[in-house]
Here is the input.
Amino acid sequence: MSAIGLQTAGLTKHFGTFTALDDVSIRIAPGSVHALLGENGAGKSTLVKCIMGYYQADAGSVLLDGKTVQIANPRDAHATGIGMVYQHFTLVPSMTVAENLMMARADVPTIIDWRAATKDIDDFMSGMPFSVPLSSRVDDLSAGERQKTEILKQLYLDSRFLILDEPTSVLTPDEADEMLTLLRAMTEANRLTVLIITHKFREVQGYADEVTILRRGLHVGDGHVADLSTDDMAAMMIGSADLPASGERVGEPSIAPRMVIRDLSAADDSGMPSLAIDRIEVHSREVVGIAGISGNGQKELVEVLGGQRQPIAGEVIVGGESYGATRAEAMALKVRCLPEEPLRNASVARMSVAENLSFRTFDREQREEDHSVDRATFWLDLGGLASLAHSLIRRYGIKAASKDAPISTLSGGNVQRTVLARELSGDVSLLIAANPCFGLDFAAVAEIRSQIIAARNKGTAVLLISEDLDELLELSDRILVMSEGRIVYQTLIQDANRQAIGSHMSGAIMPLGPPSIGPRA
Here is the structure.
C-alpha cells in the first residue's frame, strides 16, 4: 500500500445564490501531511464533502495521482482509497474494536466466520504502527484509543488518502501528539497521505508539510509551513493581520477570594454522582481555568453555578455571602454567566437582539449617562432599552441587520458577542465562562478572548471552563484540572507544563492529596 496524491481543479459549488466554493484548485502531494485552514464558513467542509462524494460539485474535478476520478458518493471515495475520520466518533459503542473494523467493510458476509475474520484483522494489525485492544468494547476505551480505532478502521478499508476533521478536539495533549506523530511516520514511509482540518496552529507547525487556506469559498493562500508564521496564516484566513490581541494580564489577584466553592457535589442527568469538588477559590483580577476532557463534571459545575442544576450538597460563597444562583442573587452580587451553546442556553431565539440584550436589566431603571441600572421599575423603559441595545451593538461589534432582528438570524460568533455584551455590561464582579470560543471563527475568538482579559484587568474574577488547552494557557492565571468530577491538579500559569496537565486530564496521574487552592500556591 502506497500513498496517493490528490488535486482539485476548479471546484465550484453553489447552494442557490450562495457560492460555497469558487474555482478552488489545490494540490496535496503523496506521502505528506497537508493542513486545511479557514474560518467558519470558509468552504473547508464543502471542499472535503465534494472530495468524499457527499456533494457533487457544479464545476471542476478531482484527480488522484494525476488522473480524473468520478466520485458520486462516499462508497466511490472509499473504493478509490479516500477515507475520512470525522470530528465526532462514528464507532458503535457496544461493539468491540474487532467488530467495528469488520462491520465497516463493504462486503460483510451474512454469516461471519470469526476465526477467519480475527486472523485477517490480526494480520492487518501486525503491519500497523499502533494498536488498540481488539476484544475491548468501544465504550471501555479512552478517547485516544477511540480516535486510533477510527483511523485503524479507515486503514483497514485500504484508505491511502486520509481526511481528518479536527482530529484532536477530544484528546489530551499527549494523546494528540502521539496520534499525529504516528500518522506523520506513516506519511514519511509513503504509506499514507493526510489532509487535516484544524484550527490549532501548534499542530500545523508541528506536523504539517504544507498548508492551504480558504476564505469565503476562495483559495487565498498556500505554502510550505516552514516558510509561514502564524501571523502570515492568520492574515490570509481573515484578510487582515489586525486581530485584537488578548492583551496582557495586568495587576495581581486580590488576597481575599471573590468566590469560594466548598464540598460541592451534584448528579448528572441520569442521577449518577458527577461532581465532587472539595474547594475552588477565584480571586478578583484572576482567571482560573478549568481543564479536562469533556464529560468529567464540567457541564454539571457550570449548570450549578448558572442556576440550571441543583447541587446535592456543598455551598458556593460569593463576596462572603451564600450564592444559590437565583436571578436576584446574581444581580445583587454582580455574577454573570456565559454558558456553552449560548443560542440554546443563554438567549431566546425568536426574540430580538435588543430584547436579548435587556434580559438582565429590563425591569430596572436605566441611568442614561452610562446605561447602568438603578432601582426596580414596573414600567418598561423602551427608550432606555433601545439606547442600551444601540450602545452595546456598537461597543461589541455585533453584526446584525438591526437591533430588532431575531437573535437566531445571527452567526454563532455574533450570538456569542451579544450574550457577552449583556453579561459584561455594567459592574461585574464574577464571570463564569464555559467554552466561550467553541465553534467560532478566528476573528471572533480573538475578540472574545480580549474581552475576557479586559474584564479580568478591571477587577472581575473569572472562572473559565474550556476544553481548549491552548485557550487556557493563553488566558489563565492558574489552571486547575478536573477529572471524574474532582479537582486533581493545579498550577500557576508560569509553572504550567502541557504534558503534566494532559497526564492529569487523562487520569494517568492521581493526586497524593488535596491540591492547594490559593492564587499564590
